[in-house]
Design a protein that fits this description.
The structure is a homotetramer. The first copy, chain A, has helices at residues 13-22, 34-42, 51-55, 68-76, 99-111, 125-130, 141-154, 166-194, 199-206, 210-213, 235-252, 257-271, 282-289; strands at 3-7, 26-30, 46-47, 60-63, 90-93, 115-118, 121-122, 133-138, 155-162. Chain A is α/β, with parallel strands linked by helices. Chain A has two domains: 3-164, Rossmann fold, CATH 3.40.50.720; 171-289, N-(1-d-carboxylethyl)-l-norvaline Dehydrogenase, domain 2. The first copy, chain A, has a six-stranded parallel β-sheet with strand order 3-2-1-4-5-6, with helices on both faces. Chain A has a three-stranded mixed β-sheet with strand order 7-8-9. The longest helix of chain A has 29 residues, at 166-194. The first copy, chain A, starts with a strand and ends in a 12-residue tail after the last helix. Chains in contact: A-B, A-C, A-D, B-C, B-D, C-D. Chains A and B meet through strand 9, helix 8, helix 9, helix 10 and helix 11 of A and strand 9, helix 8, helix 9, helix 10 and helix 11 of B.
């Protein structure tokens, strides 16, 4: 069993600390809000009035805080965990913060001889309560191995993301995609309603196509990911169909800002000579726009 | 066996006409471009120099043309199919055009006593060749029943979309979603590359989440589609995470116009008092923005 | 004095026809809506039940209609003006339609030996009433000279835009800029209000800068328009400041979709190696995105 | 003459410090980069290796640094100005940072009894050299009066923005508008080029309209700013004209992401029942989207 300092007892942190306790670990908890501290103390945790106090005697420090500066303060600030931390301890930041902030923390702790890894979580507060979070562990193999018994108390899916900083990077990519997709899905659903179509009927079709199945595993593997831009469905036609949908939405007074942005991306792809390339070549276009290298071999485009 | 006038022999139309012929139907084909006409004539079709000529003696007319005005001209213009068409014939437009254009054609043909349905297709030219298209049949039950033996020669998935005009509406919704999603996927993939993460690693995570699985069948059914806006993941947090990704992308010089548009949608949702609602409530927000009714029962929000 | 067939008596067309009549011209008017026809007849115009009737004996036909297909029908359709028009007459389309539609009309009329020019208008219905419209005359010198006595009855500012089709092109550019700028101004004004600043105070500053004065005559002439991209204010800093404003707006829950799109354009400019170029180089970036030639001489960038 | 600690000698800071020196003030300068320090020392300044050293004996401290955390460190960090500063001194931050960061600095200094104001600058490095910057002084009347003799050495236009924090807020509004407008102007200019129109010709028209003159002083004062939404130019028509421009741009392969975002804003305005309101009502729409109060009196809409 491990002595864990747990700092940050919000909607996610509190049930996570509770799950560690349930598995027999010793919890030293801190939060600026006294309420969740008191609740956990009532269940057997040691309440602490600062990160420094929480860190006393801890083998592992876990931070689960809203922003990077707050994690920085909890670890390196006045009355921060570093003031009392055993140099052999492991610090695991499970917050969602900027990768640059995470990298800076890692470097600052390394300079003091402290081992730091990130392990942000996916899924929801329901999953935090159930101990079924998705955990993206950014650490060396040794760090991940050391953290695993604890992380297993919190989640049922543990992905080793690579070295420190990789967990938070993976999480931001995943959340970027899922959160933006949520809004795009709502645009399509409202257009569907405005057309007088039941969403169920539309889903019957979309479940058969990349509209629901996505592109990563369907249209891309045989084309752009292989460096083959020969068209099964041309950028020009994709541009045309988006234009039809936007004209239609204009008639129906359904605002579609994401689709409008997408159409201009296809327009730029056409301007760059990609009109007769496969629609998956939009990936190549994005790479070019970001000044990043193509992966299509010379001569095959 | 049926006598079919097929008008429009492009990348999709030509293999479709060929498949009908292979199944024993009699084809009368027309295109402004003489090349594909000649090719099909060599395989046994009757070449025609106008839609009017093609329609002579045809039981069914199929149009597969790039734009609404072209379909209009082929049917109702000078030397158009209507000049010679048997009043008992069925007209099937398989083009991708505006629903308003399709509705207008349907009305114009109805006024002349001609039966009109739409049946646009999904998937690619490879599928057109293989006869494995997805077909969205917009017609009455009787129309669809009559068309089915022909459509089965063209596709392996036939969805009865409802009455005339519903096929093209379904198609535009589906294509809106799949084409915009393609561009959003490319944004995420390039951000991933710029972060130094292999796409495979990101997919290992995203395959477990709505990032790949989508929202229609995952996050929405238990929440917004049930009228339950209690949060498992709050709009405020979705806004925060998109902001982190955009800040990160700004540092890395990766343009993310669709994600940027999405963030402003979440910002508007927050401004409308939805910050502490579930992220699936973005659907409710889009409905409100489009001036459309909520489906959340009063008092449950 | 001239006999004028005036087709289209909407919010703009009706007062325009009235002003021609007041200056002594003979008006033959038509509209699908009988009300404005009756009103003008009461003031001395000849009411006509079709464009063909209106065109009888007319020296000039003016169209002022909502869409391109409507102008097409009024001129070339059944009971259209061409059925009766004197081949010596001049047709002036003052509607706002697509340039491609205007070009097609011009060609179709030329094929019938009829002289066609476009002359769309700027400003508002108040100006139509006052006869103080801005008129963008797209025609040959001879056409514009012939039209000028009539156009002077309608507007106080007449700009010779160049040959046929140039008037409508100029108008769309102007309206693109002024309509989009209107929305951008509203974004800035609401951000201002949300910051607790009176708009008057902000205007005191913005009136001194390109924020109100624009860029065409201020920041561009000494820099990008001269091919000089040496920075007075760098793209990198412009990107930074937009990012600050968007972060701020995110805190204040003010959606800024146009500013968000702008930031991604600067991000792309940075990705293309323009971070340390002058902010006016965003023009060069847009040219590159549209696949259009730079005007910056080689070696000066 | 005043003893001034000047911290931050970049493209803007260095010429500003120089101008203060030329007017006879005593300069104590610091920058992490030794080069500009050496250059100013050669001209008579006292070089200092930390903000703390620079602040010794200073009557005024001026910071001109890239980011908020850097200003924070220069004032409150280790070897920061506060370690040595005379409590009677005035601190003027002329950097461009987040208002929330500026507010926090103001509060932190107030807690130590130090007077803090902000005075960010407008215009370019050329103006910094010439001493003709635009300065937005955010401070009490007494603070601004005290700072004026120094600020007059740096700029020829000094605007009293109101209390502390108002200068930076004004600046961000101004820069938001001017930087986004720069990109929008480039969209219009490239569309113009793609249409084959010389920009000069387009400017001849746009100089007569809100396209260049803006809306704050033209279309808004008689309409939305007076609470009058009766149309001179309707939202519906603005939406139509933007749609034409975007269709045209789609044909010409000119990407217009800002205009595309704008069109969706007008679409939302139409969905909210504003289609027949004046286009200036887009301001009212933005207020509604941001959850902010209308200024149109009840009953007049």
């Amino acid at each position: 069993m491990t002595v864990v300092a747990f700092i940050g007892l919000g909607q996610m942190g509190a049930p996570m600390a509770r799950n560690l306790m349930r598995h027999g670990h010793t919890l030293r908890v801190h939060d600026l809000n006294p309420q969740p501290v008191a609740a956990l103390v009532a269940e057997g945790a040691h309440g602490c009035d600062s990160p420094a106090q929480a860190a006393q005697g801890a083998e592992v420090v876990i931070t689960m805080l809203p922003t990077g500066p707050q994690v920085h303060a909890a670890l390196l600030g006045e009355r921060g965990a570093l003031e009392t931390l055993d140099p052999q301890a492991l610090v695991i930041d499970m917050s969602t913060i900027l990768p640059t902030e995470s990298d800076a923390l890692c470097a600052a702790l390394a300079a003091r001889g402290i081992s730091f890894m990130d392990a942000p979580v996916g899924r929801t507060s329901d999953h935090a309560i159930a101990g079924t979070l998705l955990i993206l562990a950014g650490g060396s193999e040794a760090q991940v191995a050391r953290a695993t018994p604890l992380l297993r108390c919190l989640g049922d899916t543990l992905i080793a993301a690579g070295g420190p900083g990789r967990g938070i990077r993976l999480k931001l990519i995943n959340n970027y995609m899922s959160i933006a997709l949520n809004a795009l899905s709502a645009e399509a659903a409202v257009l569907c309603e405005a057309l007088g179509l039941p969403l169920d009927k539309a889903l019957e079709v979309m479940n058969l196509t990349p509209a629901v199945r996505g592109h990563f595993g369907t249209t891309w593997p045989q084309r752009v990911l292989k460096g083959d831009l020969s068209p099964t469905f041309m950028i020009d036609l994709a541009h045309k169909d988006l234009g039809l949908a936007l004209t239609l939405a204009g008639q129906l007074r359904v605002p579609l800002p994401m689709g409008a942005a997408a159409r201009e991306l296809y327009s730029q792809a056409r301007a760059q000579g990609r009109g007769r390339q496969d629609w998956s070549a939009i990936l190549e276009q994005m790479r070019a726009a970001a000044g990043r290298p193509s992966v299509v071999p010379e001569g095959t485009q």
